[in-house]
Amino acid sequence: MNKPRNDTLLRALRCEPTPYTPIWLMRQAGRYLPEYNATRARAGSFMRLCQDPDLATEVTLQPLARFPLDAAILFSDILTVPDAMGLGLCFSEGGGPRFERPLADEAAITKLGAPDFAHLQYVFDAVAAIKRALDDSVPLIGFAGSPFTLACYMIDGGSGADFGRTRQLLYMRPDLLHRVLELNAAATAIYLVEQVRSGADALMIFDTWGGLLTARSYVDFSLAYVERVVAEVRQRCEHSVPVIVFTKGGGQWLERIAGCGCDAIGIDWSTDLGEARSRVGRRVALQGNLDPQVLLAPPNVVEREALAVLRAAGPEPGHVFNLGHGILPATPPDNVAALVACVRTHSGVLHRQASRRTN
Ligand code: CP3
């Protein structure tokens, strides 16, 4: 596999010096882009976009054609894995995801098995097609949901208010929840390794709902399974691939997350990056953490807030600029352009000052 010409993301994830801070944005291919909405309309649905490697490639490249971003992220969804376990994923028009056959009772959980990986071939084909289209320009990030975040959707059946069924099961029948998490962890590890074999240069695990848990259950029901996934990926991949772990609402557990075997921690906007750095030391890179709401403000506010994130991250290597969560559909694309330009220019100045100080 050839190395991308722009490898600033991969270097920053290894905490190596870079001439500027690399930037990509969660949900960078999405509804804030008119060209995304046009392709999605042509495809007919979000799932058809994901399942057609040519269309998935087209939308993956759209934000890169507009902005000088330092990475592409596979266009897909975390819920493809439970879909391939037979739960029947559907997206209502304008609404969130739903499973036709959620894990409604003990019998459903007992019957649950490994996914049919033939039903996930479209994801691996999309990775390979995107990798070819990128032509070694920037790295491609593959991803999966954390075992716990997948379980939230599988048990509650869709985007509930607070995934109360899943959290009830944790107290009432922890054995059943552990069974689901074990299956999810095993499936997720294979799913990520296949993405690497198909061309992914880095991996991200989205633990969007880990922050709903108590401190004790976060470790036992989410982080322990993320750790298992990371260890298996490391064991099965022929070459080393950087892994980013993002727990939304996980700011209070950063030291523990830093010890799960990952290379980088995704930080949401509620934690100060400077404080995060002093807590985890230089063991891992940090990714984040501009509040996505900032991108709805005028460009001068975007620049002011982006500078605040860069200053909090500090001049040392090991920061990847990103949002604290996905970009909002109402974001004006011009603000994204202003953000990317601001990060490139100002981080370049900061990095030059830092390297003069150390030379
Ligand atoms: O970041 C990217 O550009 C890559 C693509 C990507 C999508 N989903 C595309 C998508 C990624 C990395 C995801 C991950 C994902 N999917 C997560 C974890 C990250 C996060 O946002 O917390 C979760 C929880 C899901 C499940 C999911 N998919 C939900 C809850 C929704 C509905 C909410 C929404 O934003 O509409 C989706 C749909 C979805 N996934 C869209 C996109 C672009 C919008 C679909 C559309 O076009 O209507």
List the helices and strands and how they pair.
Blueprint: H1 8-13, H2 34-43, H3 46-51, H4 53-66, E1 72-73, H5 80-87, E2 89-91, E3 97-99, H6 106-111, H7 121-134, E4 140-145, H8 147-156, H9 164-172, H10 174-198, E5 202-207, H11 215-236, E6 243-247, H12 254-258, E7 264-266, H13 273-280, E8 285-290, H14 299-313, E9 319-323, H15 333-358
Parallel strand pairs: 1-4, 4-5, 5-6, 6-7, 7-8, 8-9
Antiparallel strand pairs: 2-3
This protein binds coproporphyrinogen III.
Coproporphyrinogen III (CP3) binds next to loops.
Walk me through the structure.
By secondary structure, the protein is an alpha/beta fold. It has one domain (8-358): TIM Barrel, CATH 3.20.20. Helices cover 51% and strands 11% of the residues. A 7-stranded parallel β-sheet has the order 1-4-5-6-7-8-9. The chain is globular. The model has no long low-confidence stretch (mean pLDDT 96). It binds coproporphyrinogen III.
List keywords for this structure.
359 residues; alpha/beta; TIM Barrel; two-stranded antiparallel sheet; binds coproporphyrinogen III
In short:
The chain has helices spanning 8-13, 34-43, 46-51, 53-66, 80-87, 106-111, 121-134, 147-156, 164-172, 174-198, 215-236, 254-258, 273-280, 299-313, 333-358; strands at residues 72-73, 89-91, 97-99, 140-145, 202-207, 243-247, 264-266, 285-290, 319-323.
